[in-house]
Amino acid sequence: xxxxxxxxxxxTEVADCAVITDDVNRRYFTAMKxxxxxxxxxxxxxxxxxxxxxxxxxxxxxxx
Length: 64
Prior knowledge:
This protein is an alpha+beta fold. It has a single domain, classed as 3-Layer(aba) Sandwich (Creatine Amidinohydrolase, Chain A, domain 1). The protein contains 3 helices and 3 strands, in the order H-E-H-E-E-H. Strands 1-2-3 form a 3-stranded antiparallel sheet. The mean pLDDT is about 90.
């Protein structure tokens, strides 16, 4: 189980979702180094929202 999957499973314990905007935490969960982006984590799924300039890199890097 990946760290992102673990976070998804624990979200409902404290909130409806988690929003991660910090560069370090975002990189930890997505493995993508960038100065932009937001990770929104729900119990059933996570979404990585990023500037269109990074879309190709995100598609290759973020796999979970």
